[in-house]
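Lab notebook, bench 4. Still working through the backlog of constructs that have no structural model yet. Next entry is a single chain of 295 residues. Request: give me the structure tokens for it.
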Amino acid sequence: MLFLYLTYFVLIIKVNTNSVMILQHVKARCGIYPRSTIQRFAVPDDKVPWTVEYKEYNPPNYTSPSIHGKPWADPNIDEPNFKPTWNSIDGNVNRKSHMSNYTIANGYPMNPVGRTGICGRGVLGRWGPNHAADPVVTRWKKQAESDMKITETPILQFIAIKRGDTGEWALPGGMVDPGEKVAVTAVREFQEEAMNSLAATEEEKSEWKQKFKNFFNGGVEVYSGYVDDPRNTDNAWMETVAYNFHDHDGTTVGALKLNAGDDAAGVRWVDITPNIKLYASHKDIVSEVYKRLLE
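Model written out:
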């Protein structure tokens, strides 16, 4: 179900996004695979690329039983009726990568960044790219209750949610539904995770619709591509498109009462600092937003 301002046209300003391209993954090679007891096969930094020989490489094959039969998930790749069209729009499923065409080896799509220490699909729904959208909603931090001016050392804040699965702070994004526009996903996920729109009253929805009518029509695309996500495998991986929605004077979303919802364990405004720690590649994305807003 779509709520509130999702009926409005979302204007996305296209920009060069190559400055935060992920060329190596670290979190996608670490330790125990999420929500399992499966230990990844060790992959040294120099053995990540598929072009580098690694004769000893013998990763475990794991696809979580929890995704079998789910409407949002692909079937097992060897099922006779499953004939995906890789690197293309396959019906209403987007199997194209933001990176470039990925390789198919023995019928399996191969992670474009390289080895992860585990093959199969893990907990991801799709073989190959799994598309998400991440809204980066920002404001300049108040130096005093009545002052929203940018000082000589401005502090940028963004709305972060605390993930229920890992306990890490992250962007309030989520998966793109089949046939859904990515920009619409970004706004929908923000509502669900940072405002708990699924539990909101009709009166609250009407108030938000008026308040945010213009704010979410002006998103700037800041990144599209691979995400260094701990759920990634050799055959399934996360990609995202991130949009910045900036509250210039702090009177729109900046004055919003946040309310964690959906699968978020918490929500708050977070300062963007050099030592900030965030889920997956989210630090790279918010750092790029900070840099752009200071220009």
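Notes after review: Helices lie at 182-194, 202-211, 282-294. The first helix runs from residue 182 to 194. Flag for follow-up if needed.
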